[in-house]
Known about the structure:
By secondary structure, chain A is mainly α.
Amino acid sequence: MNPIPANAANVSTPVSASRLRSLQAVGIFSGFAAGAWLGGAEAPIKLVSPSISPITVSLIMVLGVFLARWSVPAFIRGTAHVGNDVRQAPHLIVWAVLAGCMWAVANTLTIYAIRNVGLSIAFPLWNTNSLLGIFWGFLLFNELHYAGWKRWLGVIGGALCMFAGATMLAIASSHQAAPGKATLGILAALGAGALWGTMYIPYRKAYLTGMNPLSFITFFTVGEVLTMSLLAIGYRGAFPLWHELVSARAVLFWLMLGGFVWVVGDLFQQYATKYVGISRGIPLSNTNQLWGLLWGILVFHELQGASRSVYTQVAGGSILMALGALAISLSSATQREHSSWQDAAQREGTRYGVEREYVRAGMEGRAHHEIDKRRSPLDWALIIGTTALFVILAFAAKTPSVGFSTAWAVALAIAMLTLMVTCGIALWRVTKFL
Amino acid sequence: MVSNSTHRASRNLLLAIATDIHFWIPLGVLLGGLALLDKVR
């Protein structure tokens, strides 16, 4: 292991109370913004005909995700920052790629889980990821240490409340009866939950050692796209997959747009994880189910003609989820708990020989040192190339034949954009997107 | 000279990762997930 650079401050010096309050507030805000955008990502996918195989749908989305994960950081900060982060903490490339592989496997498992047991059973099972995230946060990264019983109650109670709400919503919004292969379906859903819940270990590891979310996601997506491509080729075969991709060109735009929207949500989720930890950030991001339901009911008329008991379940589940999220958002970390996070950060920095000042600056959401803010030719190539590709795909896209309410779609899109802009401004003011 | 120090840095990095229990937990879960995927598909 590398020696600890001796030229910097101690990571464990407590962050000032006012700075901590700002970081916690912006982290919680990011969690809510993440929920809106992750939920909204389901909307473009609903416009696509179910005749395309789920693996291919997943692969196309991941290709859109890949483009977004390189072009959005290039647009916001420029790829020079990515290079700087890698020089400071090169070990995080391995962690990010590992996390990306986990995401791709979990996402594929959910496809089989839904197919075998239906959404109503599968969704709550993989939603246990937030409970596992709390466990890993406590065990490995000192989260909720010295938090006091009120905050424990807020976080655990809130997560359980959200889990119960998610179960009710999933049952209400399910149109599928559970067919055979139930055990395998349940195992697939639990496996997806375990993978997603454990994927937050690399996330937390990265952010404790000062990495910027915009840098982390660029390597995360390499693992994602490689694993998804291998799975798709392995399961479909290279030629059948290619033919399916070519024949799906009319819907490529919608699927890749879904991937792009998903990345915006995931980026907010990463900032939430960085500033409030996985025990709070992940349950807040899980409010995506509420947004997905709003899109389903208001825009795609999914529960039209449903019984009164279904609407009661939807109302009850939504209220439970909202109350759970509220409880978690009111249980932000105290200065003492944050100090124990800093101890975990110091441990990580020591193990991987990361400069202490870099770790500390990352935790406090401030710049370690000034970097040239100008965009490089690579940045412009990424931004212009991705935009051009989306424009070309949009021209090739067919207008969906699925009936939907334009007015509600515009209203929800405006709500999402408002959340993105306000949260983006808050992140910029407090952290300059660090 | 430079290549030697780069080589040493890479080896140190890999050693730090390989001796970190935090690495083996997600890797183990990933391998388990792949095995499960092979069963359910």
